[in-house]
């Protein structure tokens, strides 16, 4: 039996609603100072999941008072046309944040597109200037999913210093920036991936597990230490008994017998990704208007470097 009978099932929707309420207040402060924050959302093609995410981003922007500017381009859009649009958005002083929904169609070089975004408008935090700044502990725009995971962890655990965190997955969007943020929070961090030896044994040592590999229910109860806190970033659509359903990278039902806290899928990390996109749009607006930058408003203000 679990020695943690009252497992905390972390409610990502409620946490996201709190973040969005903060954003709404900050937007109203900015508007009083004469700045109307605006987010440009670029979608190329008609991938159904991307369409849903973009629609939700636009809805959350509207709800918080951020102006959203949607650019929907056909799947056969040429790379140079997309780059030209980004150039135009970079030069438009009314646009504070630029988001290009991923994945892009295969004929477009994703890296070239992300590098074309002005780092000060890069609300996804994917530009190499922001990636480098994050690893150096500078105050930069930080990828939304890891930033959302950090908020969930701080709300759940309080101070993270000294905890051993294992990040499963080494993607540029989640695994690598997540490891950087956990290091800034003074965790001991292990990053594991598909080629790691002893994956299960490494995970069993963790106080915190962040699973971001895209393998349905990879992490089972016997991968987890008693009382571990689990953040499940996986969003895997599987067919079960003839029904399509969404599951994470963690076997939620079995993990419940071991952990002290865990995020569900859906309703865990996902909603936080979009809430932190709104936070980043405000952070970008403040970075572009340093006179408004009186208080540090970046969602994950870096801690001093670790010695
Ligand atoms: N430019 C970007 N592209 C992509 C990102 C990103 O951060 N920036 N992340 C993902 C997709 N994504 C946001 O874009 C995203 C994924 C999932 C959710 C979410 O709320 N998921 C729900 C379930 C949704 C469902 O039913 O399918 C949940 O987990 O509760 C939000 C945003 C890749 N692309
Ligand atoms: Mg990965």
General description of the model:
This protein is an alpha/beta fold and 307 residues long. The protein has helices spanning 12-32, 48-64, 79-91, 110-116, 128-136, 144-157, 175-184, 199-204, 252-255, 269-288, and strands at 8-9, 38-44, 67-73, 97-100, 164-168, 188-192, 208-211, 229-232, 236-240, 243-247, 261-262. The protein folds into 2 domains: 30-135 and 271-284, Leucine Dehydrogenase, chain A, domain 1 (Rossmann fold, 3-Layer(aba) Sandwich), CATH 3.40.50.10860; 143-270, NAD(P)-binding Rossmann-like Domain (Rossmann fold), CATH 3.40.50.720. The protein is built from 10 helices and 11 strands. Helix 1 (12-32) packs parallel to helix 10 (269-288) and helix 2 (48-64) packs across helix 10 (269-288). It is globular. The N and C termini lie far apart (40 Å). Residues 303-307 have low confidence and may be disordered.
Short synopsis of the structure:
The chain has 307 residues and is of the alpha/beta class. It is 39% helix and 16% strand. Strand 9 and strand 10 form a beta hairpin.
For this entry, what is the oligomeric state of its chains? single chain
Class per helix and strand makeup:
alpha/beta
Beta-sheet strand percentage?
15-25%
Instruction: Let me know the average pLDDT.
Output: 94
Q: Helices, strands, pairings?
A:
Blueprint: E1 8-9, H1 12-32, E2 38-44, H2 48-64, E3 67-73, H3 79-91, E4 97-100, H4 110-116, H5 128-136, H6 144-157, E5 164-168, H7 175-184, E6 188-192, H8 199-204, E7 208-211, E8 229-232, E9 236-240, E10 243-247, H9 252-255, E11 261-262, H10 269-288
Parallel strand pairs: 1-11, 2-3, 2-4, 5-6, 5-7, 7-8, 8-11
Antiparallel strand pairs: 9-10
Helix pairs in contact: 1-10, 2-10, 6-7, 6-10
The structure holds the ligand Nc1nc2c(c(=O)[nH]1)N[C@@H](CN(C=O)c1ccc(C(=O)N[C@@H](CCC(=O)O)C(=O)O)cc1)CN2 and magnesium ion.
Magnesium ion binds at residues 169-171, 175, 212-213.
């Amino acid at each position: 039996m679990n020695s943690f009978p009252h497992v905390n099932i972390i409610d990502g929707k409620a946490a996201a609603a709190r973040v969005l309420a903060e954003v709404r207040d900050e937007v109203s402060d900015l508007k009083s100072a004469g700045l109307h924050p605006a987010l440009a959302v670029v979608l190329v093609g008609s991938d159904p999941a991307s369409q849903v995410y973009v629609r939700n981003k636009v809805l959350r922007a509207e709800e918080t008072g951020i102006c959203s500017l949607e650019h929907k381009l056909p799947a056969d859009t040429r790379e140079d046309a997309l780059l030209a649009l980004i150039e135009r958005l970079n030069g438009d002083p009314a646009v504070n944040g630029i988001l290009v929904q991923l994945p892009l169609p295969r004929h477009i070089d994703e890296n070239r597109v992300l590098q074309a975004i002005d780092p000060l408008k890069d609300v996804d935090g994917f530009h190499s200037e922001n990636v480098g700044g994050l690893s150096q502990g500078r105050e930069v725009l930080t990828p939304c999913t890891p930033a959302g995971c950090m908020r969930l962890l701080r709300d759940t655990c309080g101070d993270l210093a000294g905890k051993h965190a294992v990040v499963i997955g080494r993607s540029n969007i989640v695994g690598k920036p997540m490891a950087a943020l956990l290091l800034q929070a003074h965790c001991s961090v292990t990053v594991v991936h598909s080629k790691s030896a002893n994956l299960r044994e490494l995970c069993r040592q963790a106080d915190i597990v962040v699973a971001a590999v895209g393998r349905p229910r990879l992490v089972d109860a016997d991968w987890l230490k008693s009382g571990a806190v689990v953040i499940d970033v996986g969003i895997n659509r599987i067919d079960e008994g003839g029904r399509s359903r969404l599951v994470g990278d963690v076997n939620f039902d079995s993990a419940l017998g071991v952990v002290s806290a865990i995020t569900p899928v859906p309703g865990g990390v996902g909603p936080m990704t979009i809430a932190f996109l709104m936070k980043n749009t405000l952070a970008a607006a403040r970075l572009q208007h340093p006179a408004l930058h009186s208080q540090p408003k970046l969602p994950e203000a870096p801690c001093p470097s670790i010695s």
